[in-house]
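pls read this stuff:
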Amino acid sequence: MVAAGEAAHRASGPLAATPAGAVRDALEGIAGNLRARAEEILAANRADVAAARGRLPAATIDRLVLGPERLEEIAREIATLAAAPDAETVVGERTLADGTRVEERRRPVGVIGANYEARPNVTVDVASQLVKSRNAGVLRTGAAALQSSSALVDHAIAPALTAAGIDAGAIQLLRTPDHAAAHELVSQPGLIPLVILRGSGETTASLAARAAAHGVRTLAHAEGGGVLYVDEAADAGDALAMIEASLDRLGVCNRLNLLLINRARYDELLPVLQDLLGRLGIEASLPPHDHPRGHEWALDAGNEAHVTVDTADDPVAAATIANRETSGLAAGIVTADRDAAEAFLSAYAGTGAFWNATTRLLDGFKLLAAPETGINVDHVPGPRGPVTYRDLALRQYVVTGPGAG
């Protein structure tokens, strides 16, 4: 881990000064390599999937599988990122009364670490965001995706960096399943001052605590779970469509997790909604619950095919439940009443608030046209929601005196 951090650190200085054309070439090269070297990458992925079957839950395997279509989708996203404009270096300026000029600038962090779940696409997402933002990185994925991630680095990422004149050492992958590597990743403030943490709440909380003890800052994405409130003024057909759209994948953080139905319509709508859930292979967890109302099913291995169902008196009550009892990732309302929608949107304090739209849209590429490193739900200033290359920078003030020319 230390060797990887040192290699990334050596590459970080030149990378920070890399011109836009070289970064664009590198990202276009990654996209091209994903297509040209697809067979080698997919073969490694098939080996990971074969090793995981019968050992890991279905939702974990769903996240692990690449496949030709998924790989092509990733390639298209990276090509889109390549064409996106760089984040501006100077984001604000003013002149003081004596003529002193003040510029607010953005500069790369240097080296950013990332510890994430066994999802091969995240390896490409994070690496591309780091290169786009001129940051080097040290990546650690879940053991189940190690062959896939190694193939992605070896066949797509590293060759593209080299071809663009960028030190391939800028993106390091820790090629060990040992959990000690994660502990070391968050324990090296001199090499890796910021680490992106993704995965289960317990693991992420433990690593975040260790990072804090060592003076390493973190961007954590641990818990999720979308909330949908079906209002008194909701069209039943719209509600059914929204529920189905929110459950196309069960192992992702922004899927429907808690379904709240207006109390006045609960008895009317529950049978119809239960019928839909049944046809989708989803079991409704009805009150009284033997688990917290915000329990995240996507993280409950073997029980992902559940949705918690409960009542809410009105839009503000629904938003309050979402605020107090869920992670604050995303919540939506289905209603034909604008006033009800505005009441819900104003009351909900989470990262993404939706009206007649699915929380599955809370995704960096879908909302911001850039792959994300994760979704930050912290209640502190800084990047919140999908974190993209635009957020991976430090603020710096450059002050020039009036006589400096």
